[in-house]
Amino acid sequence: MRIVLLGLPGAGKGTQGVLLGESYDIPQISTGDMLRKAVADETALGKQVKEIIRSGKLVPDDLVISIIKEKISGDECRKGFILDGFPRTIEQGEALEKVLPGSVDVTVYLDVPRQEVVERLAGRLTCRKCSAIYRKSDISVCPVCGGDLYQREDDQKSTIERRIKVYEENTAPLVEFYRSRGKLVEVSGLGEPGDVFEKVRENISKVVA
Ligand code: AMP
User: Which among 170, 158, 164 has a CA at the least distance from the CA of 64?
Assistant: First the structure.
């Protein structure tokens, strides 16, 4: 099963991606997590993209396409994968079709109003080690892996606005791109993650036998 998750930053792609990964026993691939790891490890790629990520802009297509190509061609993806945060431009969507023709079985668009994602992003903490996401609260350590919880620099209010604008200009056209290929399911991302997940699974099973 090859699934693409689409939606505004903060729509719940990461959370639904983890649940889908467990359910179908396939890896969840987040380009954001991969890029943040490269920044933390101070690799050549990390140095190149650090400022871009901090400012909420998009990393150039050729860089992201090449890391995704390598990842999805690997053995761990032979049963399929869930893409969270890729593609983010039409060019990336077209590149994905070239790497693996007919590669996407279904694209799930998580629909969440703009105001809701602003509140979610400004109020969330991310685990430095396993990338799990929590609402801001008294905990400072990840209950899953013990990693530090921190507020992503690009989850600051001023950067959130830029990320939403970047999404609307570059990524939103992918909804039509996949709809025109008959691969799109639309699910409201409002509500508890477990309830959203049930709707996601139900909708996927309508499209993929
Ligand atoms: P995310 O964790 O998906 O919110 O991504 C965080 C940041 O990583 C984005 O704001 C971009 O700067 C960069 N990024 C992640 N995925 C992509 C992509 N497919 N294309 C370009 N930039 C990306």
Answer: 170
Read off the pTM. Answer: 0.94
- Active site annotation includes 183: no
Beta bridge partners of 164: none
pLDDT digits (tens, 9 = 90+) for 40-60: 999 999 999 999 999 999 999
Query: CA-based diameter of the chain, in Å?
Result: 47
Residue-wise pLDDT for 141-171, tens only, equals 999 999 999 999 999 988 999 999 999 999 9
Residue 85 CA, ligand 1 centroid: distance in Å: 6
The yes-or-no answer on residue 128 being catalytic is no
Which atom in ligand 1 lies closest to the alpha carbon of residue 87? 19
Sheet holding 149-150, edge to edge: 133-135, 124-127, 149-150
Q: Ligand 1: distance of its center to the CA of 138 in Å?
A: 28
First to last CA, the chain: 10
DSSP helix/strand/coil, 162:
helix
Exactly one of 124, 129, 199, 201 is catalytic; name it: 124
Query: How many residues are listed for the chain in this entry?
Result: 209
Assign residue 11 a region (left: φ > 0; alpha: ψ between -120 and 50; beta: otherwise): alpha
